[in-house]
């Protein structure tokens, strides 16, 4: 039973989350907002309403490649979201602006996540080699170092959750207060934001399941 649960978390959950966000985005990218504003216009309006005139809005190639770059202070929106007026595009644009507002207000979890970036990046790259090396060579200390580095990457995933949920909450508040969406559009906007959030939840659960598996393997090595 434990193995089936593990497989469900590792394989099925991420696939379901990706499928959910793609299908929800596809559905509501075809539904226009009552305001008729493109994603770029939504982002610019919310930024300006919050006094973030120095934060730029740029187009980036791809689909769902939208992100906020804290180093260059730029909200980047994928081509369709940038140019067209849709409920999905407005939700995504507002979500990324939510990160810009977090950055401006020095939101604690965002600052913590940013501080974890170099450690998490290094940990995710080297941990698997240390773990495999520890297993093949029977070196428990090497295996333990691998777990520690992997744990840093997992911590990054977990800290990402409050950052993303907070950005979505800010997005909803801003879209309602600025009149980007009306009452009958709130439900569909929440669906888009929640579907996107599930990809982060799935990623965190997968990472946590892997960490627990490595810990149990390490315990098993000590018992042999």
Automatic annotation (TrEMBL):
<protein>
    <recommendedName>
        <fullName>Zn-dependent protease</fullName>
    </recommendedName>
</protein>
<dbReference type="InterPro" id="IPR007395">
    <property type="entry name" value="Zn_peptidase_2"/>
</dbReference>
<dbReference type="Pfam" id="PF04298">
    <property type="entry name" value="Zn_peptidase_2"/>
</dbReference>
<keyword id="KW-0812">Transmembrane</keyword>
<feature type="transmembrane region" description="Helical">
    <location>
        <begin position="142"/>
        <end position="163"/>
    </location>
</feature>
<keyword id="KW-0472">Membrane</keyword>
<feature type="transmembrane region" description="Helical">
    <location>
        <begin position="115"/>
        <end position="137"/>
    </location>
</feature>
<keyword id="KW-1133">Transmembrane helix</keyword>
<feature type="transmembrane region" description="Helical">
    <location>
        <begin position="197"/>
        <end position="219"/>
    </location>
</feature>
